[in-house]
Fold this sequence. Notes:
six-stranded antiparallel beta sheet, three-stranded antiparallel beta sheet, 11 strands
Amino acid sequence: MTPQLTPDRWRLVKAAFAELSELPTDERALRLDQMTFGDSALRAEVEALLAAADAVGDRFERSPLEALAPDAVSDPVGWRVGPYQIIRPIGRGGMGAVYEAHRADADFHKRVAVKMVARGRDSDAILRRFRYERQILARLEHRNIAALLDGGVTDDGQPYFVMEYVEGERIDRYCSAAQLGIHDRLRLFRQVCTAVQYAHQNLVVHRDLKPSNILVSADGTVKLLDFGIAKVLDPEESDAEPMTQTGVAPMTTAYASPEQLMGSPVTTSSDVYSLGVLLYELLTGRPPFDVTDLPVLEARRRMAESMPDLPSRVVAAETMSSTAEPTTRRLQRAIEGELDDIVMMALRKEPERRYSSVEAMSEDILRFLAGLPIQATPDSVRYRIGKLVRRNRAAVAALAVAVVALVAGTAVSVWQAGRARAERDRAELELAKAESVTEFLRSVFLAATPQQLGRQVTVVDAIDAAVPRVDSAFHDQLAARSAVKVILATTLFDMGLLDRAEPLAREALQLQTSLDSGRVTWAGATTRYNLAMVERSLGRPDAAEPLLREALAQYESLPGVDPAEIAVGWAEMALLLSEQGRHEDAITLQSRVVQLLRQRGAGQVRRRSVTIANYASLLTEVGRLAEAEPLHRESIALAEEARGPDDPLVGSILQPFAINLLYAGRPAEAESVARRSYRILSHHLDPFNPATLVGLRGLLNVLVEHGGCREAVSLAEPVIAERGKRVPESELSLGSAYLAAGDCLGRDGDPVRAEALLREAVRLRQRTLPAGHWATGHAESLLGEFLVRHGKKDEGRSLGAGAVAALEAALGSDHYRTLQARARLSRD
């Protein structure tokens, strides 16, 4: 007699199946013998499950346990379900079926989709899962997700729910039928990302992203369907998720992540992987893995352990047999490189090495579409220089014609149009210049290979090897020499190596001035602008201001320049004026810039958010806190709209808001905002990235003033240790680290080190900030108080009095920092 399948026995079956399903077929028999101990009935039950799993094939869209259930035994077409009349079936899945239905009462007419559990599959577990799906849909309201409209129970107890009816084609067929190009496919794919990211923000992981669950309407709107195996990540709701109890997770093998295939915990990263599979298929016309003829277990193992071919290689392989070879080659070139990198980063086997979120993946696609560097590409020398050449081509007059010739075929069109020989010769000369620049930049990393240097090469190594060769390599080509120096200086500037960037930028300006011969050119204006930014970052606003004014005046005299672009330059000028202590002039100028961008910067959400944040920061600095607060909040909202709540841009904009709250006497709010700012920046960026250090500066300010000295010292010490290495002398946050550590150690009983740190903080600020800057006065006030407290009263009082005078002159007598300094001076 066959033993009854009790709960305890069922647990044995599930455990055996879970382990054996991961083993190669030829290893199962021995392990099954060991696990069943001669229990032939138990062995038969496990073998039945394994056979069912293999029988499902590559369309493993439901649990093998569920696959054993009988098919539906009745067709509900013609039934009335609540007020809806079922018309026809339009889809079928593991749990049930979806039908087109019409509202059948006299109230109104509406076309809907009704989902019901299939007859014969209405077990308690399936019914719980069905209700769970309905709960998930109830929490999701998004234009790219099919909406839940209604729900209920039929007369015979079958649950159903009613959804928005979506008339459209599955996304892969839509792209093929409309013959969409790469960019249009990417834009469509970003709609999918928007829907999935929204679900993630609501703690829902879809777990079954595939073309058949993504429809596109005639007007190009994406609709995400079928949350039948979705999972809620909210810990308070996790116990309600029924599919985790079966021991066999439902999925579609071809689109499932490695952790789904291997039965590991599933997070939002699993959806990132599935989106990578979808993007791979949209770009190449086929999924990354062909598992059509493989048993389920073999398919799962292959997909979990191996990486697919690059999408561009798949397309290239088809070129040999394609009748549209030129078109296929163009497609392969469009995918090769950055799109390969985006797709392959999403398809990484380790969840932690994929994109951190769907939003990050979507942002990379947007950056690709805009011609900006993507996050997925390793920061190699070849990649950085290639990007910089493209970003600076408008700024380099010698390359402008040549780049157009290379990319758009201008040289060919010149020949075809029969232009004058002189013009043709000029184009050839510019082309030769561009080729020489390109060849030189290639040599930058070829001359500084690991084989040459005997170690891992960095971008800095490559540039150090290149700089001495620039003048000799372009001895008689001033334009090309200027172009290379601009590119190398920009790279060093981006890396925060300002002392190295400055001489190259200055030499480039001298060359460009000689080339321009008094004419106003885009290249000349841009070279001046770049040098102004270097000078400002070096703490030399007096040197930066005339360069920036001249650059902006030249931009304004050039035809076709967008006023919104120039406004950004004037916003930088406002910051320069503030750094020189000319706060009212800076505020007036920044106010005009904000007004212009609000009028003419439609769609430029990121730019508006940064400019408004800078304006709010200026108001905060001079103590106009009530005016500044709504502007801070507006800038944060715009940044979150443009980039999402956890983007580094948001982290950077939160930092000055934390200072606003600190000055306003709201320390708890200030600490919360400062911590969020630093958390975002340190998560996404290097700990010594300038933006991360700005976030750290804000957090140190809050901690020191409100009892967080131990944490402040622990955060400041690594910055001090990297002085002159990863943290340049000109970095303002270096002075803040010395100041925070010195102030805190002075309170905690280490006066010798505290005095040394405080004095060094004052020296750093005197060197890096203009005379009379309030931040120097603040440091002098803290040092003065410390000296008075430790017996050096004359020096301390003198410093304290000077600090009060400096702060009053820079910020006014009622500013937070001035009042603090005056209070310190009054203590004896």
